[in-house]
Design goal:
By secondary structure, this protein is mainly β. It is built from 2 helices and 13 strands; from the N terminus they run βαββββββββαββββ. The longest helix is centred in the middle third of the chain and has 6 residues.
């Protein structure tokens, strides 16, 4: 299966906050999904087939694990095994640093078979400070994954060119 969706954020922003039934997807093995709850009254997240509905009730976040909810739009995929490809910088050539040499200094690794924690920063105003400089590929964030086994960690740039992105999904 590949990423699928029903509804669209642009429709919600255009005023369509009706819902698509979540229950119809609940038989999909290894289902991962997310979207806003019908009426824009909460968030729906599904992790490995288990729904988590988050709503604000009496000023507090309340969680529910029922599939008896609908989403304004929902994006989902079936993923048996997650893989994260990341890079570590390992510059050893002693030459002046350039964008090209920066790319050459990246050693790529993969995390699979363990849970991953992710730390990230997003900004539209800090290109060249902590996000990559202005580029046609639209990078706006910097993300670092770490395996919860504490044996692997590294850097990622969201939205980078093929082969240079954090890939979350089945390989």
């Amino acid at each position: 299966m590949s990423v699928r969706w029903v509804g669209a954020q642009r429709d919600v922003l255009g005023g369509d906050i009706d819902g698509q039934v979540l229950r119809s997807l609940m038989g999909v093995p290894h289902l991962y999904a997310l979207g806003p709850r019908v009426g824009v009254s909460g968030e729906i997240t599904v992790f490995d087939g288990t729904p988590c509905i988050a709503r604000v009730i009496d000023g507090r976040i309340r969680l529910e694990d029922s599939a008896d909810h609908a989403a304004c739009f929902l994006v989902w995929d079936h993923v048996e095994t997650w893989h994260v490809t990341f890079h570590m910088l390992d510059k050893r050539d002693g030459l002046p640093h350039t964008p090209e040499r920066h790319e050459q200094a990246k050693v790529r690794f993969q995390i699979d078979g363990c849970a991953v924690e992710v730390l990230g920063f997003y900004s539209t105003r800090h290109r060249g400070a902590f996000t990559p400089t202005e580029r046609a590929d639209g990078r706006r964030s910097r993300v670092w994954p770490r395996g919860t086994d504490h044996r692997r960690a590294g850097g990622r740039h969201r939205g980078a060119a093929e082969g240079d992105t954090m890939k979350l999904g089945a390989c």
